[in-house]
Amino acid sequence: MKQEDSRFSRNQTVCIVGLGLIGGSYAKGFRRLGVQHILAVDIDEQALKAAKADGVIDEGYTEGCPELAQASVVIFCMAANTMIQFIRDNGHFFKPGTLLTDVAGIKGQTGAVIQEILPPGLDFVPGHPMAGREGQGYGMSRAEIFDGANYIIVPCRHNRLEHIQQIEAMAYALGCAHVVTVSPEEHDKLIAYTSSLPHVLATALVNSEAMSSHTKYFVAGSFRDGTRVADINAPLWTTLFLANKENLLYEIQRFTESLQEFAHMLRQEDAADMTDYLQKAAVRRRELVHETHSH
Predict the structure, then answer these.
(1) Dihedral of the CA atoms 121, 127, 132, 137 (nearest 10)?
(2) How do beta strands 73-76 and 59-61 pair?
(3) Ramachandran sector of residue 141 (left: φ over 0; alpha: ψ -120 to 50; beta: rest)
(4) How big is the CA angle at 79 (ends 27 and 207), to the nearest 5 degrees?
(5) What is the pTM of this model?
(6) Alpha-carbon torsion, ordered 131, 58, 94, 160, to 10 deg
(7) What CA–CA distance (Å, rounded) separates 105 from 199?
(8) Phi, psi at residue 14, to the nearest 5°?
(9) What is the pLDDT of residues 7-38, one digit of tens each?
(10) Could you report the per-residue pLDDT of 152-186, keeping only the tens digit for each?
């Protein structure tokens, strides 16, 4: 157990707004930890009923309500614009001193906008767990998606240090291996490469004209691994891609240039340069895996 993990209090009420894949995973992760009281808000009554039946939430609500005042931590697992509207409509329900955070994949100006509309006494610390799996919805949620994951904290200028530390402690308690703090601009630039671009490539692979009903007989591990994230929540990812358009276009251009470089080596039958290119990738990949699992 990390020292930061031990700082996370199980004796509190946590509220999760949005009980889909990520929100449900938080609920299951908190229940696994033994958190005393877990609330959830979601317009999907079936998701709330399922979570209640699973024993991972204690109460569920389809809209904001006075019971939200019980929460000391609120995690928004929804699109940024929906979260902003929820805070506008329901922020008055939260008691002073409550810590709010999110999981939005693109930060942009979201933190600054929310700081402007927060009722007095509330603190919003943007976050982004680098955790997920195929599919969508509560039924696909798992506590284990946090195990060994990275967690990004994107503080705002006015955040209280103890609240930033509280999010860090929560991430480690859930099972995350690394917690990193960055600015919104740096976050969105890096996410365009490490998250958005791989989703674009996976969907391009399965949307290729080469895909047919016969293709499945020629699929092995490399294709399955490379296309895992093509099982995508299309409306959510469309919003994320458009919200980070310039950074993503830049990464698509850089990747296109890398592909063209390889195509040139192939066309010229340049075995020496191709071998160097592949060996460089192999070394980088091994270093990445070693660094990821050694801290």
Answers:
(1) 30
(2) unpaired
(3) beta
(4) 100
(5) 0.88
(6) -40
(7) 13
(8) -110, 135
(9) 899 999 999 999 999 999 999 999 999 999 99
(10) 999 998 999 999 999 999 999 999 999 999 999 99
